[in-house]
Here is the input.
Amino acid sequence: MLTWLEQRTGFVSMVKDFLTEDIPGGASYWYVFGSATLFAMIVQIVTGIFLTFWYAPSASTAYESTKAIYDNAFQHAVLSIHYWGASAMIALVFLHLLQVLVWGAYKSPRELQWIVGVLLFIVTLVLGLTGYLLPWDMNAYFASQVAINISGTAPILGPFIQRLLQDGPVMGTLTINRFFGLHVWLMPAALVGLVGAHLFIFRHNGPAGPPVEDPRPLRPGRFWPDQMFMDTVISFFVFIIILFLATFAPPFLDQKADPTNVTFVPYPAWYFLALFGLLNIMPPSLELVGTILIPTVVIIVLLALPWLDRSTLRTFGSRAPILWATTLVVFIVVVLSIYSQVSIQAKQAAAAQNPVPKTAAAAPASATAVANNAPGGVAAGGKVFSTNCSSCHGAAGAGVPGAFPPLAGNPFVTGNKTQVIRVVVNGLHGQISVKGSTYNGQMPAWKGNLSNSDIANVITFIRNLWGNKASAVTTADVSKIAK
Amino acid sequence: MSNPSVDAARAQAAKRKILSAYDEPGTHEEITRRTFMANATLAMSGIIGLGLAIPILGAILPHGGEGAGTWAPLSPAEWKSLQQATEKPVKISFTLKSKDAYLPAESIDEFVWGLKTTEDKMRKARPDLFTSKGAEVPYPVVNMGFVIFSPICPHLGCRFDYSADQNKFLCPCHGSQYTREGAHIAGPAPRGLDPLPLRERSGTADVTWIRYAQSTPSRIVVSYTS
Here is the structure.
C-alpha cells in the first residue's frame, strides 16, 4: 500500500525525509520556541477562517456582527481563542526572537533565515494592529484612529500612507474593508509564504544548537518522535493556557464606535504598550523620534544584525556587548510597558470620576474605565449590561421614550435593592410610571439566563452609573430571591 | 511487480542525465531556439503580471477627494445655547448629513465648541491664528461675537473635553491641554485648537465642518465633509 503510494507520488519518502533531521545533541526542550510559534499561528488561521463566516466588514455591520458572535456561546468561544491566540503568538514570537538573539543563532550562514524571521515578527505585529480595528467598538475606533494618524505623521510618505490605510479622508467603512483585507488575506498570505521560506532555509542549514565552546555533535535522525514529542508537549501547554484565558478572561466588547465621545481613554494591545509609552514620554518637538524614528532604527538594526556582529563566536563570554544591549532593550521595553499600563489606568480612573452624560451620546467612557474606583463588581456588571441590557435601556441608561424606561436617574433603581433584584430575576410586565412617563413593556426574567453573580454585578453597575449612587448588591442578596 | 530500489536508482540516473544536459550548449540552432523560448516565457509572464498589477494597484489607491464644504445648520435651540454662552465654552450639538462611502447617507450627531469672545481678545490669546505662517485660517476667526472650535484634538485626532474646574480643554488620549481660547499649554499637540467658520442664516447660524491634518504645526485641510 505504502509502496504503491510512494511509486505514484513520492509522498512516503518526502514524509520520511521530513521526520528525520540531524539535531545537535539530540532532541531538546531548548528547540521548541519556533514550533510553538508555528502552532499558535495554526490556531490563529483555523479560528480566523471560521470567524469570517460570521463577521461582516462595513461600518454598519462590523460592530453588529461582532456582537452577534459574542451572543453565540460557541462563536464567542472561537473568538476568545482567536483573541488569546494572538497574544500567545506574539509572546512566542518575542521569546523565539530573544532566544536567537541570545544564542547568536543569526550568525553566518543563517543570515537569511534571521531576516525572514524579522519580517515574520513585523507581519505578526501588523496582524495584531489590523485585527484591533475590526470589532469597531470604542477602543477599536480610537486606538486605530491614533495608530493611523501616527502613520500620517511620518516624513514625506506619511500623508499618503495614512490615506492608503484609511482609504479616504477620514476613517469609515472603507477603512474597515481595507483592514479586513489586510488582516484576513494579505498579511496571512505573507505570513504563510515567509514561514515556508523560514522552514525551508532552516532545513537547509540545520539547527544552530546551543552556544557552547565545542559544538555538540549532530545526532542523526529522529525528529520524529523525539523532538516532535517535546514540541507537542509545549504546544499542548500553550493551548491549555489559551483555553484557560479564553474561558476565564474572554475579550470584552465595548459600546459601538462613537466618534463624538469626549472622555474615552483608548488603550493599545499589550504588545504596543512600549511604543505607547515612548509616545507619551517624548517632548512634543521630538514626537517623531518616538513614533517613527526609534521603531524604524530598531527594525533596521535587527535586519542588519548579522553584519553588525560579524564574529563567528557564539559563546556568551565572547558576546558580552550584544548580550548587555539585548538585556537593556528588554528592560526598557518592560519598564515602558508598565509605565504605560499604569498611566492608562490612572487616566481611566480620572475619566470615571468625571462622567459627563450631558446627552445620550456622551455615554460613560466605558465599563472598564469606570471600574477602577467604583464598588467591586461594577466592571463585571458593565460587561453584563452591555451584552444583555443596553439594547433596550440604552448604553447610557437613558432608555427609549415611550418604550423602555430609563435607568439613569430612576429612583426605583437606586431605591430598595430587594425590589430591583426581584425585577431583574423575575421580569416585569404591565404598566409602570417612571419620571412622569408611562411604560407598558416586557422586562424578561433573567433567572436561568444570568448567574446570580452576574445579576448582582449588573444591579450594582446600574445603581452606580450615570449619576446614580446606591449600595452594592451581593451574590448572596440575589440568591435569597432567586433561590 | 517491479523492485522499488531498482526503480529509484533508474530515476536518479535519468535525473543526472537531464541535469548534465543543461551544461552542454548544444548546436547553434538549439541555442537560438532556446533563447527565444526563454525570452518569450519571460515576456508573457511579464505581461500577465502587468495585466494583474495595473488594475490592482489602481484599485488600492485611496478613494475619495477633498469633499465639498458643507454648512451644517444649528437648530434654534442650539443657537440659543450658544448665545447664552458666557466666558465658559459651550458644547453645541447639531446633526450633519453624512455619507460613508457606499452606505446609505445618514444623519449623524456632531458637536463643536463655542466661546463668546471678541476679535481683540482672540488676537491676544491666539496670535498663531492671525500671524503664524501656515497656521492662520482663511476665514474670520470671530464671527457674531463667537469663536467655534473643531472638537478634534490637533494631536492625533481624539475628542477633547472641557473641564470646568480647571477652565481648560483636556484631551483624554495623550494629555494635551488647551486654554479656553484654544491656546496649546501642555501635552504633545503641535498647535492650538482649530477654529471653524460660522455664518448667520435667517435668525440662526451654520457652522462648516472642516478637518485639518493631525499633528502638524500648520493647518492643512484634509476634508470638508465628515
